[in-house]
Amino acid sequence: MRTSVMEEKKAAILQEIPRLRRYARALLRDRDAADDLVQDCLERALLRMDNWRTGENPRRWLFTIMHHLFIDQMRKVNRRGEATMLPLDAGEALATPAMQSESVASREIIDALQAISPDRRAALVMVAIEGFSYAEAAMMLGVPAGTLMSRIARGREELRGLLDDQARRRTIRIVEK
Amino acid sequence: MSARAFTDRDIHLALDGELPEDERAAYQAWLEANPDMKARSQRYAADNSALRDVFAGVLDENIPSRLEAAINGEAPKRKEAPQRWRMAAAAALLVAGGLGGYFAGASVHGSDPDDDDRMAQLAIAAHQTFAADKNRPVEVDGSDQAYLTGWLSKRTGLKLVAPDLSNNGFKLLGGRLVPANGSTAALMLYADAEGNRISVYVTTEGTERSKGTVTLASGGPEAVYWQDKGYGCVIVGTLPAEQMGVVAKDAYKQLIAGAGMARS
After folding, report:
1. For residue range A53-89, what is the model confidence (pLDDT) as tens digits?
2. In chain A, which residue's Cα lies nearest the Cα of B111?
3. Complex ipTM, two decimals?
4. Searching chain A, which residue's CA lies closest to the CA of residue B8?
5. DSSP string for residues in A58-125
6. Domain A101-177 belongs to what topology?
């Protein structure tokens, strides 16, 4: 590969980092963990640079790579069993808010997003936050359009259910005071 | 051109800009005519903008130098505890377990999210076929509950109880066997004094832990489902949403208690 082409590609990838970081943050919440995922994605992209043709927008290519890294890992975690897999400091990380200056409302929605299934979370984030079309998201997630629609619908319902539940418990706490 | 029938699915399409241009006016009219659906659409729209707002700031953050370095193949050493994001992924599962209480039907075992849809659709089909039958809605009536649940348990391979829904005004009519997705499901039918009927559909389906509601047609029956490893349960009926939720939870609690499944 000619050096100039390589440089062009690297510059194009650099442009996508803010979007990749946002997607990772929405998937994982914790800032450092999200950046680790982005780093894994960039390293893998670099190894597979030949798969990406010049002139093609790198966004979908990079999102696809990152999504696969994320979902493979979630599956492994599931197979091993969540309790045994959990290292000690993951629990500590939970106790520390990932983002400073979070309001109660934003913390609630971030918590709720983390609590929905990874497949649904990824689909919802791609469409609702990243603004991809259903066709684009289905392609990147590697699922049929119908499955994607189902994930979005179920994901939104689940998210709303969790938020309603949080609001209800907050009301109860206030009443108890 | 006559307007097609819209469903709650169209709320998502409209919200995500996927509704065809020439259907938008009819969709808007449908929303105006269905205050429930309009309210739902507004809640989802608000959630959408909240999600976007919460993560908008990430785009303005400086790019960490280690990521720029990674592009140049100069992968910097990470802090100890490699693969923090993997731990965060595991932590997310823990949150899912602790957060939702009752509502944490939040599926933490991400498998095929279409399974629960299929289960709910079969339950709705069974409800529409049998609950509507005035004369013979059930195979075995509810007068001998022990016999009924014994028979259904044996055929489905589940430890079944017939939930007592009398607090909600519903009395057990009886039950029958219906097809499930690759197995057999138990369908128990209930009626209240006004003649409203609800179905409780239980099957061995389900690897993913999830919860949700499905409505296939506007004004059609609503299905509230729960799914957990090897246990799927759907409550179907045409009741006001609030009442439907209360009855469904009551039935589900009794079912899992009867099956000996502890649920925090």
Report:
1. 766 778 999 999 999 898 877 776 555 443 333 333 3
2. A119
3. 0.83
4. A153
5. HHHHHHHHHHHHHHHHHHHHHHH-HHHH--HHHHHHHHS-SSTT--HHHHHHHHHHHHS-HHHHHHHI
6. Arc Repressor Mutant, subunit A (1.10.10)
